[in-house]
């Protein structure tokens, strides 16, 4: 699959811009703060239903304008299509001109994987960032997962509200049975999804990492472990029951699938603690390449790769490995300098102050 065109209107610093992309390598370069990442952000927004960096949707609207619009035209082996999003007071998605009732209706129509320098936070930040990574990956492949996750979050909020009522208003503790039963059922579904896809990552990531580090003095062994508070409906229900008294005192649910984590081990040591900056970046590269392989296997096609200022984070060896692994995908690269990629099928664009110009190859 590939994106053939991106159209932007009042999006970030773009007033009115169309960009036609090739089906292999596309290099977008220019100085900082000219609008390169905004293009990648618009593509990601149309594919995944949300920005990977905006704190609120209004940030996507050009200054002094009242609305914003982004649209991608895509080509798959069996069809062509169009996804657009309009942002004003709210965010509205359209598929081939037809309004979609919810975000999950557009997720998975076009599969993309993004690499950014901030991805190192998957290693360095807390469990929430790692859960977000795996949840976004699963949602892009199984849109129903997002519905289950949203239901879980709603029930957690209801349970937390009732915990406060028990403490402050002496509400009946037995009423927690209603929420605990729902949470245990939803937790089991979420766990099964996560466990399945983390297993798929595990199958790929070790060999990929050994290949990337093979030129060193020794190969690094990379493994990951999924940490959850339960593995079945019964175990989740038991844990909710055990934590009731503590939860009432705290006023929130302290155990559950919303506390899950993924730990990365390099040569049997946690990468977040003992890994160098270079090792952590290599782990992220291995993780993203494993994600690429899993998604490709799942959809039977090559997802689109968005490399936002990521190439500059890699040395020549790791850049070579990356380019070899992604040669069959459409790749959209942003960078400050026009990098030299030996490919006969590439397009080059220069961005300056929100204007994109295609250059001769």
Overview of this structure, please?
By secondary structure, the chain is an alpha/beta fold. It has two domains: 1-111 and 301-361, P-loop containing nucleotide triphosphate hydrolases (Rossmann fold, 3-Layer(aba) Sandwich); 119-299, Glutathione S-transferase Yfyf (Class Pi), Chain A, domain 2, CATH 1.20.1050.90. The chain has ten helices and 15 strands. The chain has helices at 36-48, 121-124, 127-141, 143-169, 176-212, 233-242, 244-250, 271-274, 277-299, 316-325; strands at residues 2-11, 14-20, 25-29, 68-75, 80-87, 91-95, 98-99, 112-115, 222-227, 261-266, 269-270, 304-308, 331-335, 346-352, 355-359. Strands 2-1-4-5-6-7 form a six-stranded antiparallel sheet, with helices on one face. A hairpin with a 4-residue loop joins strand 4 (68-75) and strand 5 (80-87). The longest helix has 37 residues, at 176-212. The model has no long low-confidence stretch (mean pLDDT 93).
